Amino acid sequence: MATTVARRMPLARLALRCRAVWMESRGSEPPSSSTKNGNGKDDFTPGFYDNLIQKYAAHEEEHNEVVNLKKLMKIGNAAQVDERHSVVWENARFLQKELPKRLARRLLDLQFLPYIVVINPNIKKVYNSYYNAFQTLRKFPEVKDDESNADFTVLLKRLVDEHGPMVEALAAGLRECKSKPFIGDQLKLDSFLNSMLTSRISRRILAEQHVALQQKRQNFVGIVCTQLDLHEAVDFAYRKAQQACVETYGTSPEVRVIGDQGEDAIISYIPAHLDYMLFELMKNALRATVENSILSGGGKGSRRKKMPSVTVKICKGRCAVTIKISDQGGGIDSVDERKVWNYGYTTVDENAGLEIDQGLDQGGALDLSGAAAGSNSHSKMAGLGFGLPLSRLHARYFGGDLEIVNVNGYGVDVYLNLRNLRDKDIEIA
Ligand code: ADP
Ligand code: MG
């Protein structure tokens, strides 16, 4: 994870630095906490330089609990045999301590962004939502019994739902800031986004694990599915991606799935994470294939030309599984190859309405009728520029990786490596 300026600074210096940044940019003393204007509304982001945030954030590093599949499954296994629910209550108390610290650190990271970013309405929305979650969790009475745990669980579910759209808000905020004159490419937010989004993944896992500990689901230990069938996961992702592709372009390439079958294609993993990565990678492969076929003359006059299919291969190793997604979508231009890992990098031109306008007439081989031709329809397929970097972050979070082999002018092979826990790794000590 990237080391931020904030993380290296002692607390007292941090507070002074916050104050200095505020005064430098606004020419006045910072408010100690939320300030109200004449209408009783917040003048600025609530608790922007709240000492509490610094106090909680300072604890994160000492106690930062690493979340890994093995630990999650250990707690999950313990909860399954614990009739007195003490494992669940203990987990709730752990979260009550841990989540506010993690949120405080992210709030501090947000405070250290350049002023132009901090005042962006989308970034403020993220800040306010994190700040409210921080305060609500911090003030929640200690979980001691089933009743207080039930209330705490409802709160966690609500926070997970509320924080769902925050990635879009971050992406939109970033895009808006980058479009400002004199800022453009100078704004490098990748390390900030890496820590922001890694922390988001772990908070989400911790919250969802707590909810899952209280449910009995076959083949699940907490939120980890112990019988996750990779063929089913790939099928699910490509069907969803094909649907988005058809809605956007009116057509989609075929997808072929090959490789290891049966037991060899079953792993222990968190389904939602795998679904996210596979969906993003499938969309990229389908989009490249369709657009390349348009650009290489798949439009007018070549209606019957068949698009090359996308191939997915599942390969099981001893303690890792690789899912290889190969397309013949023309590849990535060599000059842009490194940029694809930057948050917000996309070749979708918001103003141009994708490349669909470039070579097609209505009713051509790639029919653009109805919703497919809508100006914003492509947002379902691409345009955020988060698919590759965020998928890699998810893969790496649990010890896997995501790599690309690009053949410029031909296509891309994407290798999604997932670490598979062997039985002996998850035994309860
Ligand atoms: P988005 O899809 O929202 O643009 P991504 O992070 O998923 O964001 O991808 C970033 C860019 O990388 C895409 O806009 C595209 O230009 C390029 N890219 C990704 N996958 C492929 C692929 N399989 N073939 C060609 N280009 C790709
Ligand atoms: Mg994408």
Automatic annotation (TrEMBL):
GO terms for molecular function: ATP binding; pyruvate dehydrogenase (acetyl-transferring) kinase activity. One of its GO terms (cellular component) is mitochondrial matrix. Keywords: ATP-binding, Kinase, Mitochondrion, Nucleotide-binding, Phosphoprotein, Pyruvate, Transferase. Residues 269-422 form the Histidine kinase/HSP90-like ATPase domain. Signal peptide: none annotated. The keyword Kinase applies. GO terms for biological process: regulation of glucose metabolic process. Its EC number is 2.7.11.-. It holds the Pfam family BCDHK_Adom3. SMART domains: HATPase_c. InterPro entries: AK/P_DHK_N_sf, BCDHK/PDK_N, BCKD/PDK, HATPase_C_sf, HATPase_dom. It is found in: Mitochondrion matrix. Belongs to the PDK/BCKDK protein kinase family. This is Protein-serine/threonine kinase.
